[in-house]
Amino acid sequence: MFAFQPPPTEAAAEAVEPGYWETTSRVMGVPRTERRCIRADQVAQFMQGPHNHNYVCTYPVRVVTNGAIRLEGSCKSHHSAPVPVSGHGTFTATTFHMEARVVTHVAGVDIPVHATTDARRISDDCPPGS
């Protein structure tokens, strides 16, 4: 099990704030940074856990409280079987950090993959068109 501590410098948040966010994801150490607008109606979706247009994830275990998040579930691409994923992290109204472990199957061998996501809110307002 994971032990969670809320971030000590701010009161624990229950969700991130809407705004313009910069997110850096690292899978096996390879970084990918993107900026995106998170509107007020998208905050709940953001807090439901990592996902994108390449894969769909379901998290039967999703605990979000007092600035901590824990996820357990599986992810599936359009052409693959589901693979187990678990993650834990912390967040404030303006920051988000997640450590995740995915187990992929290659030639009958389980290969654990470590991934991280770090995000920070860089502006209250989103640029036009974002």
Strand content: over 45%
Helix/sheet category: mainly beta
> What are the segments in which pLDDT stays under 50 over at least 5 consecutive residues?
1-12
Oligomer: single chain
Mean pLDDT: 84
Characterize the structure shown.
The chain has 130 residues and is mostly beta strands. It has one domain (19-123). The protein has one helix and seven strands. It has one helix at residues 43-47; strands at residues 19-27, 30-38, 55-65, 68-77, 83-91, 95-106, 109-123. It has a seven-stranded antiparallel beta sheet. The longest helix has 5 residues, at 43-47. It is globular. The N and C termini lie far apart (38 Å). Mean pLDDT is 84; it is low at 1-12.
Topology:
Elements: E1 19-27, E2 30-38, H1 43-47, E3 55-65, E4 68-77, E5 83-91, E6 95-106, E7 109-123
Give the structure's gist in a few sentences.
4% of the residues lie in helices and 58% in strands. It has one helix spanning 43-47, and strands at 19-27, 30-38, 55-65, 68-77, 83-91, 95-106, 109-123.
Defining traits:
mainly beta; 130 residues; disordered N terminus; 7-stranded antiparallel β-sheet
